[in-house]
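User: Quick sanity check before I run a bigger batch. Here is a single chain. Can you write out its predicted 3D structure?
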Amino acid sequence: MHKTESRFTLRIQDIHCEILFRGLDDANDVRRLLSLQLTGGMMDEFREIHKDIYEALAGRIGRYPDKMIVPPRPEWGVDSKGLPIGGCVRDDGTQAKRLWGASNPPDADTFWEELLTDPPDNVHVTIQPSGMSPQADWLQFLDSGYYENLAELHSNDQDWVDIYVHGKFGRSLSGQPVFRSFNADDHVSKFPLKPILNGLRPVLVGMDFGLTPSAVIGQVDLRGRALVFEELSSEGMGVLRFIRTKLKPILVEKFPGAPIAIVGDPAGRQRVQTDERTVYEIIKGEGLKTFPAVTNSIVARVHAVEQFLNRYVDGGPGFLINPHCKQLIAALRSKYRYKIKTSGEPDVVPEKNEASHLADALQYFALHADGQNGGHYLGTQRHDIKSVSAVGWT
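Assistant: Done. Predicted structure follows.
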């Protein structure tokens, strides 16, 4: 150990490894990484590390040894650019550079939460299960009931328990999530969901209008579960172009032959200034069956989603979302939120942001899926029972 240089040298047979210890607390410490030629790096408790440090460190790994020290070999071949492979590689020619990290869960709505929930292709993420889960790691090395005791000790602080016992993301510093019942472990499907296309159940499209049209496509299956298959969002696009370029193509591709019902914002009944048609008239002009939601009450809409989030069917969740619906999952996790007022209390109306449009579309879907808009849209036409004379009956 070289204390003055904060450097540790490890020698094992033909291995000579130097480990550099650096305190990298904030963005100003990026300069401490300049000119370093590294093989790999390790970040401990990375949720406390600034993203500039992470990005700078990622740019310094894989630089030692270089191709002058480890020349290319014919058996290693060439890389995707046709260049001979050498330098920072293992004995078989595969890349040796790595950047590892370990941490307790970060707060929601941070750089790290976004990276962990939607990692790029070259980043692998492992989320540990809850300490009270049968799949929890290392229980054999802990006292019996270790996590249960922690949860009891901090029973008055659910946020602490969520982070340090259940491995969930911390509370957003920007606001309070609207759907606190959402649990990605339960509500995000472990496999792609498939719709029923035999006509027994319509495919429901919840839709939010305006200049940022968004849609959530789902279905209530025969077991009464709400399944969300697709999400569609846009920016600076009219409803007609959204229908023609986004919604109809995916309906044709993934839901061929299925009955389609679109339920949307009741405000769409107002006539637009361009051609004096309502949004619903525009959608019907494209050959799609559509109707407004029975209410635009935020209380009713949120309650409709919460009913599915809290529903269990045959021992499993009553709400499932396809894992590729990244934006909607992020909205449900934390990005659809009640903004915190200067008094410290959350607002009573969710914040309008990039996540709110898909969240609104989901609410219109849930309002209808839960039967609030009338059963005849589900193909269960009501039949009035008329009284008839009993004369002549025996």
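The radius of gyration is 28 Å.

User: Great, the batch can go ahead then.
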